[in-house]
Amino acid sequence: MSQAEDTSVRVTETRPTAPAARSVRRLWTLGLFRSELTTTFRRWRTLALLGVLAAVPVLVGIAVKIETSDGGGTGPGGGGPAFIAQITNNGLFLVFTALAATLPFFLPMAIGVIAGDAIAGEANAGTLRYLLVAPAGRTRLLLTKYATTMAFCLVATLVVAVSALTVGALLFPLGDLTTISGTRIGMGEGLLRALLIALVVAASLTGVAALGLFVSTLTNSGIAAMATTVGLLITVQILDQIPQLHAIQPYLFSHYWLSFADLMRDPVYWDDLTRNLGLQAVYAAVFGSAAWARFTAKDITA
Amino acid sequence: MDELSAAERDTGAVIATRALTKRYRGGQLAVDGLDLTVPEGSVFGFLGPNGSGKTTTIRMLMGLIEPTSGSARVLGRPMPRSTRAVLPHVGALIEGPALYGFLSGRDNLLRYDAADPTADPRTRRARVAAALDRVGLTAAAGKKAKAYSLGMKQRLGLAAALLQPRRLLVLDEPTNGLDPQGMREIRALVRELASDGTTVFLSSHLLDEIEQVCTHAAVMARGRLITQGPVAELAAGARGRLVVTTPDPGDAARVLKEQGVTDVVVTDDRATGEPPEPPRDLAEVNAALVTAGVRVRGFGLQRASLEDAFVALTGEGFDVAG
């Protein structure tokens, strides 16, 4: 800093308002994260995505209510998302059903939109160059974008869970619930497990978030990045359904997603859960590094 | 720090590039061996037709683009390596403003200010208000940026560059989209900032704008630097033309040629030409016109403009892309 000051001694003398040397305060660097959060959540697109996610449990709840109003249950063999048969007995199961229904597509699609737009959208609008000359710092900006995307994962999951809990409480009875293993747990523990499941679901999305962020550093078009990420998501989901590809399936980021249901076993069956979280960590590390390598070396021409 | 050469310290160059070159992946040479020196405290005009490499140069100076070869120093430090130390002291408007349309003007500035890790959040609102006031946007601060006119967006972009006291302002076409009144205000603002000691690096395709506000200028064409120096010296490089306004331009042209005036051009009621060489008292030329019965309405030497200098230097019109 001192040499830079040397070149403009005259300037600093003539402008007493200029601080002698502005320093970077660690706490102030969080300002960008706060700004990023408010900017993201003030976009109508973000609110629309959250609105769609909130609507899913409402639709599922109403459908189940109508279906069972004639007295007949959906029955265990009725198909549909996990836990759907138990909803009429306990509204809390709507939380698990809604998460199981949104995790394969709605939730990761919303994440893909937010993550894909993170860098490419700013480049598209030209705001990226102004953030970088502010100077936001490329690594700092990328970390902020990833942290914001993760925050969105959590908020999106909680929106589904809270909406489901509200609808479940309104339409169905609440109370003790039966785990998959057949044991009964109290309402309090049931809520705790619901929260735990929401957190695991949010964590399951970190892989696709990192993938979307990496794609976002490759292009200057927000739409292209979103479409690519969502396209990759659909491709992976299809590959995961083809039996002949079972050799590669354990490496697909979505393969262990529905393992969150194991949290409803008593005792909890951890194997697939830890595999899922480990896989997400690997995806986050690989694509996070790739995004960093790409973004820090990229010529910003937009 | 030790890399700051004695020469650079002596010249006090705010921007100094050496053989700065950028070749894009397609093989296109955008900037070719640029040696640019922007003296401290100057208002530096950066001129050149579209596609001459101005914006690529500015992007390299701001650390947005990595040079293919050569070096660039801003405020005595190498770019893009020292962006974190240098850029908080630099305000920039690059290729027009870019805003978040769904945020108000004020919130746009708050966001850009939050992006600067050296900006004190306690004074953020006050600084944003001051910047808005400085560009005359206080009344429209609460409006969403997408409802802004181009001129208002341009002002908001300028306000973002003025959020902090800056040592260097890089303004790429700052008067683009502004009405004449807005242009005058921006020019006045640039002069005011310069008188405070801020170095202003101003790119423009408006030669008279550069002539009005700049102390120094550089001319680029096809990625190469053609010339740089104080504006007065650049304009002096091109000679003025003798202009005679008369209802008898044909006779005037004949007399002017007899008097040693070269390159005589006749248009409607004017005859213009290069003053005689070697220089002589132009009053004699005028007297000769009158003696020959030419009715002279106006007689004078038109000062060479920067545009004349530019055409003389590049041998082409200003709007020809490189």
Automatic annotation (TrEMBL), chain A:
Q: Does the record's keyword annotation contain Glycoprotein? A: no
Do the record's keywords include Ribonucleoprotein? no
TM spans, by residue? 44-64, 84-107, 146-172, 192-215
Record keywords: Membrane, Transmembrane, Transmembrane helix
Pfam families on file: ABC2_membrane_4
Example of a GO MF term: ABC-type transporter activity
A GO cellular component annotation in the UniProt record = plasma membrane
Task: Please indicate which superkingdom the organism of origin belongs to.
Answer: Bacteria
Q: This chain belongs to which protein, by name?
A: ABC-2 family transporter protein
TrEMBL record, chain B:
The answer, when asked if Transport is one of the entry's keywords, is yes
Asked if Nucleotide-binding is a keyword of the record, the answer is yes
Q: Which domain of life is it from?
A: Bacteria
Give the enzyme's EC designation: 3.6.3.-
**What are the GO MF terms of this UniProt record?**
ATP binding; ATP hydrolysis activity
Record domain ABC transporter: where: 15-247
Which keywords describe this protein according to UniProt?
Answer: ATP-binding, Hydrolase, Nucleotide-binding, Transport
User: InterPro entries this protein is in?
Assistant: AAA+_ATPase, ABC_transporter-like_ATP-bd, ABC_transporter-like_CS, P-loop_NTPase
Family of the protein in this entry = Belongs to the ABC transporter superfamily.
- What name does the UniProt record give this protein? Daunorubicin/doxorubicin resistance ATP-binding protein DrrA
**Organism field:** Streptomyces jeddahensis
